[in-house]
Design goal:
- The chain folds into four domains: 143 residues, Rossmann fold (3-Layer(aba) Sandwich), CATH 3.40.50.300; 71 residues, no CATH class; 162 residues, P-loop containing nucleotide triphosphate hydrolases (Rossmann fold); 71 residues, Helicase, Ruva Protein, domain 3, CATH 1.10.8.
- The chain is of the alpha/beta class.
- The chain has 24 helices and 13 strands.
- The strands form two sheets. The chain has a seven-stranded mixed sheet, sandwiched between helices.
- Helix content is 48%, strand content 13%.
């Protein structure tokens, strides 16, 4: 249900007190004035700075006068006409300063407001609004988080911004659609500024417009705190091995096409990548972004926690809402076991981690948006079992086999500037000497060989440099053998799908 339809439903249900969490006051007023069947409602706003402002006259005039936070509700109770909507901007400040009077007065007004088809709509920026709402009003006030504008709203905004531009300089439909898609996740004000900046910078709309809009989007997503926009340049060839994982992901890629929607195919929900550290779990999340050509958003759960009651859950909902609006996208949660530490043990914790976990768990189960979750983890035992069951599949990334280590050597040697490593090195020997090593350890060995060659008159890397670096490496499979054996039971006991074929 769109925001406009949800607001219409609340008013049809005679909910007289509605609390909207949003920065977008103009958009709310516009949507309110466009609600079908509510054209006869008068619309007026009030704020502490400029007082009353009439947006649409109702059947009866609203007697306006100068009011303060102490007198506004009394005036509304006595003088507001029937069939009228009053929008109170930033009224949460009044809740804080005159909590007892405001909450009691509003509760006294509910019956009369409902009988006279009157509505009070409070507009509050998303700054811990649950903390500001008096507890006494929990049953009387409907709280609604206003979603960010969707593709249709952004397209209307773009047409409005470019209305005076020469039609010959406007983008073609394909490019326009890409620009609108890039702007998803922005507020109307932010999107308007991004479109105007494109025109100011280039006086045309071409592929550079997408880059500029994406850049603006990255900055805003970073400012949100919990989400970070990652520019993933990796593709399938940058990840050695993991053939079963890659095949599964390729099959799911078609689920985001319009043909899949017509066929009734559901969106895939996500995967959990568990296993040995250094085997490419985080790299696989970045690879998926390049493989599916979808934006990658990294969720830093640690930044969600706030000092105020309810703030942490609000931050989680805000991050989820931003991810859904930026969809289709990939939501990457790195080191999942640390994100929800303590939730799995005992189950009696009622602190912020448990509440955030509950919010995320419900969303994982119920959401219908094309947000694909990629969760990576090392310590599987620390992850709540009810969360693991929400993923489409759990993959285990084991120690790389001989074929995979060969591919990993070729990837990192090419990154070191060696175009044809299979001609210059005895790869069979390197594969044998690196047995039991993970991809991260092989990468470090190649890097160490680079330093050795550079220190020796900046010559090219030789076979002996790599062998010496490998000999100095103590693989994690040996230094933490007991831990690795416990982790590998997840694959050997069939509790997770292998990400690679057996040799």
């Amino acid at each position: 249900m769109s925001f406009k339809h949800e607001l219409k439903a609340l008013m049809a249900a005679q909910a007289p007190l509605i609390h909207l969490i949003t920065y977008e006051e103009e958009r709310v007023i516009r949507d309110l004035s466009e609600i079908e069947g509510a054209q006869d409602l008068g619309i007026t706003s009030w704020d502490i700075a400029d007082g009353f402002k009439v947006y649409r006259e109702g059947p009866e005039p609203f007697p306006l006068k100068d009011c303060t936070t102490d007198t506004i509700l009394h005036h509304v109770s006595e003088k507001m006409p029937r069939s009228h909507v009053l929008i109170l901007k930033d009224f949460h400040h009044c809740w804080t300063t005159r909590r007892a009077y405001i909450s009691r007065k509003l509760r006294n007004m509910v019956g009369k407001l409902r009988a006279n088809c009157q509505y009070l709509i409070f507009l509050t920026p998303p700054l811990a609004p649950e903390q500001d709402l008096p507890r006494e009003l929990k049953d009387d006030v409907v709280v609604l988080n206003v979603p960010l504008p969707d593709q249709q709203e952004l397209e209307r905004l773009f047409d409005e911004v470019t209305a005076r531009i020469d039609p010959a300089k406007l983008p073609k439909k394909e490019l326009k659609d890409k620009m609108i898609q890039s702007a998803l996740g922005l507020t109307t004000t932010q999107a308007r500024l991004a479109f105007c900046r494109v025109w100011a910078a280039y006086e045309c709309f071409d592929e550079r417009a997408i880059e500029l809009i994406t850049w603006a989007k990255k900055q805003i997503i970073r400012e949100s705190g919990a989400l970070e926009f990652w520019s993933a340049h990796e593709n399938e060839s940058d990840v050695g091995g993991l053939d079963l994982l890659k095949a599964w992901l390729k099959k799911r890629e078609t689920a985001f096409l319009s043909e899949a929607r017509k066929a009734g195919l559901p969106f895939p929900r996500g995967i959990a990548l568990i296993g040995i550290p250094g085997t490419g779990k985080s790299l696989s999340a970045k690879m998926l972004s390049g493989l599916w050509k979808l934006p990658l958003l990294r969720l830093d759960v640690g930044t969600l926690f706030g000092s105020l009651l309810g703030e942490s859950e609000q931050n989680m909902r805000k991050a989820i809402m931003l991810a859904e609006t930026a969809s289709p996208c990939i939501l990457w949660i790195d080191e999942l076991e640390k994100a929800f530490a303590g939730v799995a043990a005992g189950g009696f914790n009622t602190g912020a981690p448990t509440r955030i976990f509950g919010t995320f768990l419900t969303w994982m189960q119920e959401h219908q948006s094309p947000v694909f979750v990629v969760a990576t983890a090392n310590d599987v035992a620390a992850i709540p079992v009810e969360l693991m069951s929400r993923f489409d599949r759990i993959f285990f990334l084991d120690l790389p086999n001989d074929t995979e280590r060969r591919e990993i050597f070729k990837i990192h040697l090419k990154n070191a500037g060696i175009a044809f490593p299979e001609r210059q090195f005895r790869l069979d020997e390197l594969v044998e000497k690196s047995r039991g090593m993970v991809g991260r350890e092989i990468e470090r060995a190649v890097r160490e060989a680079q330093f050795t060659a550079f220190a020796d008159n900046n010559r090219e890397i030789e076979q002996e440099d790599l062998l010496a670096a490998l000999a100095e490496t103590v693989p994690i499979s040996k230094s933490h053998q007991e831990v690795i054996e416990v982790l590998r039971r997840w694959k050997t006991e069939g509790r997770a799908f292998p990400a690679s074929s057996e040799e």
